[in-house]
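Model: You mentioned two targets. I'll fold them one after the other.
Researcher: Yes, keep them separate.
Model: Target one:
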Amino acid sequence: MTQLLKNEKGYMLVLTLAVILIIMIMGLSIMTITTNGLAKNKTRENIVQGTDLADKGTEYMIKSLQMELEKYITAGNVGKKGFREKLTSLLTSSSMICKSDGTGGIEIPGETGNTKVCIDAGNIGNVYSSEGELMELKKRVPLISTGIVNGKIKKTTTEVVIGTDAVPDQLRYSLSTNNGGNLYLHGGIEVQGDIKTDENLILSSNATWFSGNTAKWQPSVRAKLTPGPGSVAPKIIFSKENKGVYDLKKFEEYDKHISGANLEKTSYYTKYNPAIESDQNSISNLFFNSPKISVLTKTTIPQDTLDITKKITDKYKLSSNKYNYTNNLNITDSNHPTRNINKTDVVFVSDTGTEKVQETYTYFDKVCAKSFFGICYEWKQEEKTGTRWVDKDTYKLGNMTINGGSGKREITLKGTYFVYGDLVIRNVNLKADAIIYVQGKVDISESTITGVDNNSTLIIFANGNVDMYNMSVDSGQNGATKIKGFFYTNQDMIMYGVGSNINLTGGISARRLILTAVRGNTNNGNYLSATQQAQITNGVASQYSRLKIIYDQDLISTYTSFKRDEEEEYITSLSDPEIVKRTN
């Protein structure tokens, strides 16, 4: 019995030691695994931080190049030759380029590591249009950025297109405002491409239409944004700081809403600041069934506004004009003399007269400077002002009307038109490949507008208001009026997609731009409910938008294909940098 107890105690000792040994081995294994895991996590963290630093270095270099070019073009009148030379010298500057010994470029110290970014000058490439033409004011620039964190190196190569197209800045966006105007998106509009506003962006979940002179607020959904060709995300660009996004929540007082009189009233609007990151996320969430939206504030540069009056009056009765219409130009059928117009021909509409006007002028009069006993012995010339009547040339209004009549005839329009008056397009199936400069207003209704062929566009630049309405009223999804064009005005533009049904491939720019639409079919003033319009099936909106704006990536090349006025155009704006390739 005593021997049995001794054996049991011996087994217990061995068992205890075995358990302790196993626990020690497991503990060491866990510690090793944990240590290795921490080390790997740290390595991964360093790599992630290195990648982030490299990306930030690329972003920093792009902004630096843009700022340098913007500084150059805003310092004075810069022509194409000067811009080409500046772009070349900047991209090949010894302080910017990568050198064979590993030096060169910009070094950026940071809290978590260091970044070095430089231009691979030996591989700078040319940029070509979709038609294969050399874009001489742009370059494809490879940037090599290296992020270093705790000895871990992460290098990225990014190719970015930098430069300008030397065309009006407004042609670069689906929608934009100019001359300090607000952008209004009412209801279920759908926009593909970037939008830019010179002032505020104002949203409403209700569309607007008019019954007589009374504004009606029709329940709908908010606007939908999608990226344009070659873009990852749609962008909203504010050209000035301290501007806001205002979401309307009180649907009344239309006139004050449009004038902006109630913007700062919190009972009427919810305001978001595009400069605040948390508000940027909120702004993105305001849009209906849209991907995450990039909200940006662009460095302000001089407005690229068009002096339309000067462009028109400079064309008065030039011998190079194809036709000079001294009164109105009325095109009502396909046999009008304008059928002989070619794309590069010029037509002037209106005439001049004279009128007496009073003007102030300066002259010099002989007056006495010194006299003795009433006798002047020194004279001087003294500048004086007076008024006189003179003859001055005045322009008579000459309107241009395209009207197909009750039968809505098909009319073809080509060429460049300068109209010192108004433009009316009504009751016509218009095939256009034309640019029209309009001194007055533009009224488009009850019509369809397409191109002469797939490469043609109607481009209108106006000084007055532009209205587009009653286009394919109450038609279904496949019956939309399909317009290929671009509209610019120094005043206001409004486009209706409530009863109307419009697909515009191109873009719009106005001082104040108002777009309004519902989604789905309509019938004699009857619309789908807001709930029906908001239906989504498998991530796709169930109801189509009655007003779609789709950016035309060929707009710029279309504009430049017309006969240009200027031998040497001044560069007033830059294209947004476009990242075309990125490798790790």
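Model: Target two:
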Amino acid sequence: MVRKRGEHGVIVLTALFFVVFTLIACNFYRLSCGENGVPAAYIRNTVTIEAGNCQGTIYDRSMRPLVNADTERLAVAVPTALDRDICAEYATDRESFLAEWDKGQPFVFQCTEKALESEGLTVFEVPVRYSEDQTARHVIGYLSEDRGADGIEYAYDSVLRSDLPQNSVTYNTDGFGNVLIGDSKKVFRSGSYKSGVVLTIDRDIQRICEECGRGISAGAIVCADIKTGDILAMASFPDYSPEDMEKAMTDEHSPLIDRCLYSYSVGSVFKLVTAAAALEQGNSGYMYSCSGSIDIGGRVFNCHKLDGHGLQDMQAAMTNSCNTYFIDLARCLDIAKYRQKASYLGFGRENYLCAGITGSGGVLPTEEELSVPAELANFAFGQGRLTATPLQITQLTCAIANDGKMPVLRLIKGMTAEGTVISGEKPPQLSGVMSSEDAEALRKMMILAVRENENSKAKSRKISVGAKTSTAQTGRFDEKGNELCHAWITGFFPARKPRYAVTVLVEDGGYGNDVAAPVFRRIAEKMTDLEKPK
């Protein structure tokens, strides 16, 4: 039979179609099966979902967390194994939860206490890096792109974020990526966040200093253990929120500056150094009659009491904070030994605490500069080129309160691997910077400077203290023409058996007795209450 040309074409196309179809079917079968011809739906793979971000902890001296102190609940959900409406009730953010649910893949969401574990829901308690009432912010520092950018976060970045294992749940899946529910999920709950850095900071004392200094617009408070040099509190004002760094960076008050580390004009607190040098050089009985001013090479220096204090010894001059007495006293001293004494007491030297946290050395005038009579006069009562940090002033007070043995200030106590045992702790470092007799004489001066001054606002009925205030001139003036002065106080307590040294600086605050002394008193009282049996 003769076929028509059109019928022959149809037969060829049909045959070609079956060949192509067969090839496609075979290829599909090959792709849907394993190497051994097993269907892909039966091939086992795994998927791992991480929940939260585990970072090492920064602890206080008693192993209490300064970060990671609070926790949040995070859950890993498998949509194919859960009821959406019921599970949505567990979410703290329902809208975000539903958006993730609709994707059909396992996901992480923040949940409430109501969320209960099931095969399709795994719940983790995850540390929150910073709390709402975060303490010691300037010491701890902050993160940028999940790396330490400042403070302890920066100094110990490699320790706090060194590939720590994360919370996770691992599911078996089929060849199409579907989670196989009921097929023994594996849950890993990380405890690696317990490792970290242990500071000398005392969390309770740090909070006391921050609370008592809350009214300080700009300034610093440092508290140290006089025996060990352990820094128990470092508070800088104003504070900032690590959750709003953009605001902190544009704030005209520069809250990111740690003012504990910055140097300022010192003022009358430095009279303690002048007195120490005089005692060492045998001038303990020096007498001087203050008339209210003194002429030094044609330049007149005034005392704050314009009609003068009259005849005084060193104790009375310290209590009265008489400028002219100490100016005249300084003229009797060997300049080289006087300056060397200031250096021994920490002036002009940095306080290294850890990488990225170093107190400025400030300015200690040279011997040549002090050979100029007017410069020496300024130096005698803490003015002129001299500057120092709250850390340096605290270290000076530690030496006086600790029988002349000055400790090296320290912020790092050691490391911990599991949050209970401290490793790498070093003994305190002390240096003899004055005799115990001279230290005792200075302590007495500081105690009487508070006790004998009826106007002293450092005086407390709860606890006896020794202290010295300053009103340090800055050479800067406000819009009304009034000179801006830094308000200082440094002191120790209890008076008879000192344990703590505290320094308060209020930048451009005015009079030390009016502004800084009340803060010091409140800190001493609250720390005393802290130690009372409950």
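Researcher: Noted. Anything on target two?
Model: The longest strand covers residues 466-477.
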